[in-house]
Structure prediction request, 351 residues.
Amino acid sequence: MAQSMRALVKAESAAGITMREVPRPTAGPGEVLVKLEKTAICGTDLHIYQWDDWAQRTIKPPLVIGHEFVGHIVEIGAGVKGYQEGQRVSAEGHIVCGVCRNCRAGKPHLCPHTIGIGVHRDGGFAEYVVVPATNLWPIPDEIPSELAAFFDPFGNAAHCALQFDLVGEDVLITGAGPIGIIAAGIAKHVGARHIVISDINDYRLQLAADMGATRTINVKNERLLDVIDELDIDGFDIGMEMSGNAQAFNDMLKAMYHGGRVAMLGILPNGAGINWDDVIFKGLKMHGIYGRIMYETWYKMTQMLLTGFPLEKVLTHQIAIDDYETGFDLMAHGKCGKVVCDWTGDIKTAA
Ligand SMILES: NC(=O)c1ccc[n+]([C@@H]2O[C@H](COP(=O)([O-])OP(=O)(O)OC[C@H]3O[C@@H](n4cnc5c(N)ncnc54)[C@H](O)[C@@H]3O)[C@@H](O)[C@H]2O)c1
Ligand SMILES: [Zn+2]
Ligand SMILES: [Zn+2]
Prediction:
């Protein structure tokens, strides 16, 4: 009989998630089997948990969710070179086709045929996950597993924040979710001047301040345009939209300096009522951001961590995997930065 394993499964087309015994997968050609140590909860997992419109359109149950993880290689499939059993790895969650124009041109982050681990195929909220060897990212010994578990959103933040030169620039980030908080830290790390971040959640704004934001704005109580006056600037040079909120995005466009550059990561509602005059007459440069650059973003994240980037400041909760409901609840209420679940038994207490 095939061996089984425990996994968090989206079992039915309804809200919720269940811990189940499922067959343990094996590594096919070009793949490895990873035994999980830690898995982090992403906003995407929360969408799947809550079964919102996007999840209903995208997810085909039954599916093992999760794409932010770290573990050890326990089985190596045929034809895999350069990895050993026991090695500690994370992995890029976007599996690309390898044969389209962009993949062949060395731009796989622009592959139009991307498949998502934990979205389109079984993921890392499990004791074991199968990953193509091409997607692995080895983790240096100096980096703790609880941080390596969430290289995925660290990578979203890094890809977005490093899109434009930030040195000496005035930066506005809308949305202090885990990604916005990390982006504020990266802006500080690379030498931006004012780093202003907005949200409607004071807990998360405090985390962003701890990470390096120089001014936080709770848009429920303060206006962005008043902060521009307070800072005595003409507007922001760089914008990073990380809230997915149309009002926040339009306020950002109003607050940009002429010739400013805007990187767009947050997933906005269709149309989002954009005031195109702000874009056209100010000559703004807009850039959509998807995923991470394979694998240059991974390289830069690793080196930033090894040279003192304080990623640990966004890690607010480590919980045992059996307390996963607590983790999803924290995420749903925004009373957290990153929440990392442990499979090893090392973490005993609930959050
Ligand atoms: N493009 C990509 O590849 C990619 C990858 C991952 C995540 N995302 C998207 O990026 C965004 C950030 O991700 P996250 O995991 O940090 O999400 P998150 O949902 O945890 O964070 C979004 C934050 O925006 C805040 N917010 C809500 N309304 C606001 C307003 N009016 N002004 C300012 N802030 C407001 C929320 O309180 C929350 O803290 C999300 O929209 C997510 O879906 C995109
Ligand atoms: Zn993620
Ligand atoms: Zn491709």
Q: What stands out?
A: The pocket of zinc ion (ligand 2) is lined by residues 42, 44, 67-68, 152-153 (CB under 6 Å). The mean pLDDT is 97.
